[in-house]
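Issue 218. Parser rejects a valid record. Input:
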Amino acid sequence: MKKRTIDAVVLGTSLFAAVALFGAAVTTLGTDRSSGSPRALIGSTSRPAPVAVDTTATPLDAARVEQALAPFVPADAHEHAGLNPMLEGDAHQHSDTGTAGDANPADGHTHDDGSASGAAHPSGHNHGGDTTSATVIADGNNWKDGPFEGSRIQWEPAVPNQRGSAMRIVNENDVVHDYSPSDAECAGNTPTTDDADYGAWLVAQTHEVLQRYRNRPDLALADGFVPYPLGNRYWHMINFSRLRTSNYVASSDPREGSSASEVLNPAGLESFIYGMVDGAGLVPLGGMYMYDQKDLTPPAPFGCLTAWHRHQGSQGFITSFDPQDPRSVWMVHVWDLAAIGPWGEHDGAHASEWWLGWRYLPNVCHNDDCL
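Output the parser choked on:
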């Protein structure tokens, strides 16, 4: 990404954050929207419908989008009526013998979860995008020596109560996330009673800590949290004085954390996510805990209820600010929004359904991250 593009993203996101913070500081709207109970593996449970969502927004028509993009699509670019079967469901196979437009593209890509090229996918990760109703507008096999080479561009219509419309650029070869525990480690795993109890403790304690910042960005700033400018329709508040957290102390009771631990300690929460929510205002959408030892395995007292993740590839370069080691630190989200539950990953397309102000604007996404 060119510096000019990065500057534009940073400026635009920062301006929005400033306006939203100011508006929330003078407005208190408030119903409580606490999190639900712990879930099993990431992505294994369907998303509950959010409360009081306006579904009157009309998504853009795919035909109009294709028409608008026509001047930029090479003459030999073919269209797909929906996504290739390579994106449908879990545990599908890649033969790696197909050609462009076939069900099994000859992309030969690999997976960071340890599965070899052509192997079945464990059920924890995805390739970004909609697996059922998207329309592929341009196939990366027809983009040579350009910014979209190796990527496909697809239009995803809005799904009321779930996510907004999105123009998504998907690059299968750009592996942007690594997980711990990995998909392979969690395959077939059933959370224990201690896992579930610890997860419930972490969710409840995170919720309590975040209540201080509901419609109170002034208190967040006073406590040392500042907006992180790179983001999507919600943004991170980061306390830089708490980032060097690598000392983990296990509790004598596996059902809860230890107050002596730097890691996974709600009292020392490193980051939280701010966003606008209908009927609530500017609220913490969830907490984000960090572990700064990139080459070590982070502690997982929650078992496979959720997983730590770190950014790598193109996202690692942006989030690490270290060209010598373009990987972020380890992070784990604990969401505090009833619409999505405590565990999981949710991009800007989902955030479109949380606040009326976003639902009329289509998302622009790279893999699973949207603006």
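Fixed in the parser; the record now loads. The radius of gyration is 21 Å.
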